[in-house]
Description:
five-stranded parallel beta sheet, elongated
Amino acid sequence: MAKKSVILVGTLDTKGPEYEFVKARIQEAGADVFMIDAGVSNKPYFKPDIGAEEVAAEAGLKLEDLYSTSESTRGPAVKKLSEAVALTLKKLLAKEGNNFGAVMALGGTGGTAMMAPGFRELPLGFPKLIVSTMASGNTREYVGTSDMLMMNSVTDIAGLNRISALVLANAAHAVAGMAQSYETTKKYAKGSKPLIAITMFGVTTPCVLRIRAGLEERGFDVITFHAVGQGKAMEELIDAGVIDGVIDLTLPEIINNKNGGIFSAGPDRMNAAVRTGIPQVVSLGAAECFNFGPLTSIPEQYNKPERKIIVHNPQITSLLATQDELVFVGNYVTEHINRHPGRLAVIMPLLGLDKYQAEGSQWYGPEYNEPLYQTVRDTLRKDIELVEKKNFINDPEFADATMELFLKIWNNK
């Protein structure tokens, strides 16, 4: 098998020895290296395969226009170089017969911000790794909805020592292995079964697992999205034509987005199915719930007794929507699905939307959700089928009814 190449992208004017070390470790692990210099001084520590001037030119830039010691211009320069790196990577991977199997970079705050946007845009499944000082914190702004890997550098990427050498060698050997195995990895994604997306929260898991098992028994592949912001990834994959149908069972991301919760999927949630018209069933799982981190992180305006706050775990708190907010959610849901051009249906569990509303739980009280249910009844397009079940969402009967409703939609698509 021919050797695969790892694309290394980095600033050879400031982190040359570190990249030289990583390059050697990748090569000793059995992969080749293709080096792209994204520095601005044009004084690389060693000769790259693509120089900084050529990278900048991809975005119509000149290095001298980017170079500045002023902190006020550093941000714009990093953004422009980031765009240039993204264009360079796309061009390389678009070449017929290319032998690239992975991409890797090293970075602090600036380097990670420069490399991450271009890495995120690379195909799903193509190995992409950034060793970064930022990997021990919240990495969402870097990773987005991609499958990019971030590895904590432990020390700053500023010189080689027995700690940094250990971390960088491990990263180099890992990316070499991923590159060499990339062709094998791609085989696992091939298949002819229809791919159905379903959204899940921990408190709707029993329903989702039963639906998934039933669909898989009937010849479908099922992809589950954790409704903690991953709904954004689902929207992107629907737009990309990867997903064939969707059971949007769990909707806490809507009220999270409205109230500034930590599990927002952004303002585009529920739009992709409208744009594509794929077969869709919508339910209202966890629609009454929004979230913050530990108790101490809840903003003052939400830390009120009427919110009936539940400590989901030490890192996550769950807050109950008001009745007015339930009306908002109902209007949001119907405003979106009323624009859907294809086959779809709505199913509502009238005895509770999630584990928090199970009998004996703190939020129990089926009547509490009535403003949500009534809003859906009043505003849903009259030709869209609405099924109301006197079940709790995690009852097996509700899961089965949801699956059967989807199969009905699917078979008439």
